[in-house]
Amino acid sequence: MNKRNTEMKNAAVSDDLTLEIPNETHRQEYQRIMERWEQLEDNIQPELMRRGNTPYEKWLEYCEDDRTTGSMLSTHVPCTLYFAINRQREIVGSIVLNHADTKRGHLHAGIVPWCRGKGYGTTMLSRALIECKRRGIYRVHICPNSKENISAIHTILKNGGYLLEEFIDDERIIQRYEILLD
Hints:
Elements: H1 3-14, E1 18-20, H2 27-40, H3 56-68, E2 79-85, E3 91-98, E4 107-111, H4 120-134, E5 139-142, H5 150-158, E6 162-169, E7 172-180
Antiparallel strand pairs: 1-2, 2-3, 3-4, 5-7, 6-7
């Protein structure tokens, strides 16, 4: 399959992607993907997806607190976690929108490993940018977890982002990208 056909296939796969705030209807799907994801990776991103031994009901309460007060977060900035849901109602990833800018930006995202490379990240970010604009955030900052995360960087660039700056955090070079919305 050539590059153009792959791009067309990926666009079709991700066209029906929706962002949804976690709720009780997602319980089984969340548990299914987290069991699999936790077996594959230790550092699941965004970290708000990590559940540890927390029951789903309690995790939903934490998500609600994050949306309203942000009191349990190190930044104390409220944020909203969204599941990226495909047309089969599968969770293919998630994205966190900080309601205000932080050192690490407005958005933090992750795609489940078995769904990477299918265009979901690009579409998920474009959907999150619509939500940013709705909230009055027109200068969106995103800091990939690592400057070696080429997929994340390409996703940001595809959505109109550009490298704004680099800084050191926890002895690592962090790149901050900006996307301007009109």
